[in-house]
Write a structure and sequence with these properties.
13 strands, 390 residues, Structural Genomics Hypothetical 15.5 Kd Protein In mrcA-pckA Intergenic Region, Chain A, six-stranded mixed beta sheet, alpha/beta, 2 domains, single chain, Rossmann fold
C-alpha cells in the first residue's frame, strides 16, 4: 500500500469508524487534510472507580487520533463529577463528595493506559480552572447562556413536562463541560450521541470567548450486557476494563445475539461474517476485545480456558446464562436461579450427585460457589447453564 492510500485509509477511519455524526464533517476533513495537528479532547467524569467497555469506545477513537499524530487531551472531570452529567437521565444524580471522586479517579489513568500512550497524552483535571476561577468564573459563565437555551435540551424538557425535579446544578453542567473546551483550546471534542447538547455548548462558549469553534464527533453508545440500556455502572450491565481476561471473555460470550453487529462495528477491524454461528462470532469478538485490553497472549489463553470449561461433557453451544453481581453464592440459591422448583428439590439433586459446577460434582448442600470465573452449571443429564460474573 503506497503512502497516499495509507493516508486516505487513516483519514477514512478517523472520520467514519464507529462514528455516528460529525459537526462539521467538511471542516474537520479540511483540517485533517491541511496537516494541522489537532488538540482532540475527551472528558470523563469519575463517577465510579471503574472504566468499562462503554468508555473504551471514545478511548479507542482518541487513540486513533493519537496514533495519527494529533494531541490527545484527556480531561478528568473531578469538579463536574460533583454535579454529575444529567445526559439521558430521568432523575437527578446523587451528588458525590470530593473524597469519593478522588477515590474513583485514582486508578483511571492506569485503566486508560490499556489503550492510550499516557506518556504522550495531555491529562487535565477540570478543578484546575474551576477552583482557580471560583465564584467569579461561575457568575461569568452563568451570564453567557440563557435558561431557555439550556432548557431546549430534550431530556430537560421531558423531565419538566413530566413534573420531575431539575436542579440548578444540572442546568449548569453542560455550561461547565462546554467551558472545558475553552480552557484547553480544543479543536475537536469526542463524545457519545447522548452528549450532543454538551458538545455543542463547547462550540457556543468558544465562539463567545473569541476562539475558533471546535468540531464535535459523536460516537454510538454501547449497549450493556442486558441488551437494553447503554452500558453503565449504574445499571450493573457493564464489563470493566480492569476485569480479568477470562472474565471479559466469558461476559462477551454471554451478551445477547442482537448486540453482535453493534459490538463488531466498534471493536473489530472487519465485519461479522454471515457464514459463522453467533457462538463462533462471539469467540472472535471476545478474543479481539481481550486482545485490546490485555494483549494477544492473554486473549489466546482466555479463549482456551473458555473452550475447556464450556466444551467439557459436550455442553451445547446455546445454553441459558445466569449472570451474577456477587462474587460467591451458595449452591442451593444458584439452583433456584436455574429454575429448580424448591430448596428441597435442590438438596435431593445434590444428594443424587446430579449437580456439577465445572468439573466438580457437588455433594455438599452448603457448598459456596465462587463466581469470579465463568463456569458451567449442569443439573441432571441435560440441563446446562453458563454462570458468569457481571
Amino acid at each position: 500500500m503506497n503512502a497516499c492510500s495509507e493516508q486516505h485509509r487513516t483519514m477514512d477511519n478517523l472520520l467514519t469508524k464507529a462514528v455516528s455524526e460529525v459537526i462539521s464533517s467538511e471542516h474537520l476533513e479540511r483540517q485533517l487534510k491541511s496537516g494541522k495537528k489537532l488538540r482532540v479532547k475527551l472528558g470523563i467524569d469519575p463517577t465510579s472507580p471503574e472504566l468499562h467497555l462503554g468508555h473504551l469506545v471514545p478511548l479507542l477513537k482518541l487513540k486513533q487520533f493519537q496514533d495519527a499524530g494529533h494531541k490527545a487531551v484527556l480531561i478528568i472531570g473531578d469538579f463536574t463529577a460533583m454535579i454529575g452529567d444529567p445526559s439521558g437521565r430521568s432523575e437527578t444524580r446523587k451528588p458525590l463528595t470530593e473524597a469519593q471522586i478522588k477515590n474513583n479517579f485514582k486508578t483511571y489513568l492506569k485503566q486508560a493506559e490499556k489503550v492510550l500512550d499516557i506518556k504522550k497524552i495531555e491529562v487535565r483535571y477540570n478543578s484546575e480552572w474551576y477552583k482557580k476561577g471560583g465564584l467569579n468564573l461561575l457568575l461569568e459563565l452563568s451570564a453567557k447562556v440563557t435558561v431557555p437555551q439550556v432548557l431546549k435540551r430534550d431530556d430537560f424538557d421531558k423531565r419538566l413536562k413530566e413534573g420531575d425535579d431539575l436542579s440548578v446544578l444540572e442546568i449548569l453542567y453542560p455550561i461547565l463541560q462546554g467551558y472545558d473546551s475553552v480552557a484547553v483550546k480544543a479543536d475537536l471534542e469526542i463524545g457519545g450521541t447522548d452528549q450532543k447538547f454538551n458538545l455543542l455548548m463547547g462550540r457556543r462558549l468558544q465562539r463567545i470567548y473569541g476562539y475558533a469553534e471546535q468540531d464535535v464527533m459523536m460516537l454510538p453508545l454501547l449497549i450493556g450486557t442486558d441488551g437494553i440500556r447503554k452500558m453503565s455502572k449504574s445499571y450493573g450491565n457493564f464489563i470493566a476494563l480492569a476485569d480479568k481476561p477470562e472474565e471479559v471473555f466469558g461476559k462477551i460470550m454471554s451478551i445477547p445475539d442482537n448486540l453482535m453487529v453493534n459490538y463488531f462495528d466498534i471493536f473489530t477491524v472487519g465485519t461479522m461474517s454471515e457464514n459463522l454461528s453467533p457462538y463462533e462470532s462471539k469467540q472472535i469478538l471476545a478474543s479481539e476485545i481481550v486482545k485490546l485490553l490485555h494483549g494477544e497472549k492473554f486473549a489466546e489463553k482466555a479463549k482456551d480456558n473458555f473452550q475447556k470449561v464450556f466444551s467439557k461433557k459436550e455442553v451445547p453451544e446455546d445454553v441459558p446464562t445466569i449472570g451474577l453481581e456477587v462474587d460467591e453464592i451458595d449452591i442451593i440459591s444458584l439452583l433456584i436461579l436455574a429454575g429448580v422448583s424448591s430448596k428441597g428439590e435442590a438438596r435431593r439433586l445434590i444428594t443424587q450427585k446430579a449437580v456439577d459446577v465445572g468439573s466438580n460434582t457437588i455433594t455438599n448442600p452448603n457448598e459456596i460457589i465462587n463466581t469470579e470465573e465463568p463456569a458451567i452449571l449442569k443439573v441432571g443429564k441435560k440441563r446446562f447453564f453458563r454462570v458468569v460474573h457481571l
